Amino acid sequence: MPRGRARPEMLVFAATMILGACLGAACSNPYRPEEAVSSGFASSSGAVETTTTVDGTTSTGPGGTTTTSDATDGTTGTLIFDVAANDVPPEQGCRKADFLFVIDNSGSMQEHQQQLLASFPGFIDAILGSLDELDSVHVGVVTSDAYAFNAPGCQQLGALVTQTGGANSSQAVCTPFVGGKRFFTNQDSLAAAFNCVGRVGTEGSGNELPLSATVQALQTELVGVGGCNEGFLRPDAVLVVVIVSDDPPFPDTPDDAWPLIDTMPLHDAIVEAKGGVEESIVMIGVVSWDDTSCVCPWCCPGYGCMAINDNAIELVESFGERGVLASVCAGDYSQVLAETIDTIDATCAGFTPPG
């Protein structure tokens, strides 16, 4: 007998042994009407016809026997094996992504904001194009201070921006968005919405708090019911944070670049906001790192002139391979953001939504 082929009588015996497990049991399928399916195969003693009904009875034709089988699918006679929902591993990959842009709105940021605005359309299009299963996107913007030009009631650190004001801003009310929230989605024109919301201007505080704003934006008092960021953060979505700031460490300046700050509590608070699933977070820092030639060029030496922002660097690096650093002094943010897409893709591919 050729390897891999079983004799018919062996198949009958094997099927009988398997189906016998349900002997005497009520194996009917209450969700399907009673129906019979016939099939036949040849044996060494002649043709054998088998009829299987969904009530679990299998009868064999002339010269055969009658046995009782397990439930079938009612159409092909294929056995149905009950598998509990908990036994099925959850599908990996992300269908949802939440993008939080944290934009420094201090006086030195005009050129950097313009670069970010110019590069956003290509960045988001590339993301949507590379993630075939991604079908829901949230995009929100916060500033590095309690944004004074924001809508009334949401002029606090970490609140999503919906209207802008001051020098070099869009000076516009950017809402309503299609979803009726304070963030925009792929139901909106993402590029147009970001060009309005992301143009936050340069009249913000010189004590920049982009790291603190990131943490605050994800806290329950803001993302929960009634909060300024209600509905933005989703447990079954990958979170992508993009921090853009040229803040260097100035002595005696109580901002997020101050060297005495411990960044681990910031890291832990972000992870906690995502239900403890650090693998669902991508942290991108376009900050004072590597090339710092554009950082505070008017400052006298010794007061932060062209200094790196160790705190921002440490926070980004604390996310390991999902942390991506780039220089705020880069000549083209399009290339900077394009280089983060592989990291976002890999995070999505390995993400298992809870539940």
What does the model show?
The protein is of the alpha/beta class and 355 residues long. The chain has 9 helices and 10 strands. It has helices at residues 8-19, 110-130, 190-197, 210-217, 220-223, 264-273, 310-317, 333-338, 341-349, and strands spanning 36-43, 46-53, 57-60, 66-68, 96-103, 136-143, 184-185, 238-244, 281-287, 323-327. It has a 6-stranded mixed beta sheet with strand order 7-6-5-8-9-10, with helices on both faces. A 4-stranded antiparallel beta sheet has the order 1-2-3-4, covered by helices on one side. β8 (238-244), α6 and β9 form a beta-alpha-beta unit. α2 runs antiparallel to α3 (190-197) and α4 (210-217) packs parallel to α6. Residues 1-89 have low confidence and may be disordered.
- What is the second-level CATH architecture of the largest domain? 3-Layer(aba) Sandwich
In terms of structural class, how would the helical and strand content be classed?
alpha/beta
CATH topology of the largest domain: Rossmann fold
Sequence of strands across the biggest β-sheet: 7-6-5-8-9-10
Largest sheet: 6 strands, mixed
Strand content: 15-25%
Question: Unreliable runs, pLDDT <50, ≥5 residues?
Answer: 1-89
Mean pLDDT rating: 80
Apparent shape = globular
What's the total helix number?
9
Count of β-strands: 10
Distance between the termini: 49 Å
CATH superfamily of the largest domain: von Willebrand factor, type A domain
The residue fraction in helices comes out at 10-25%
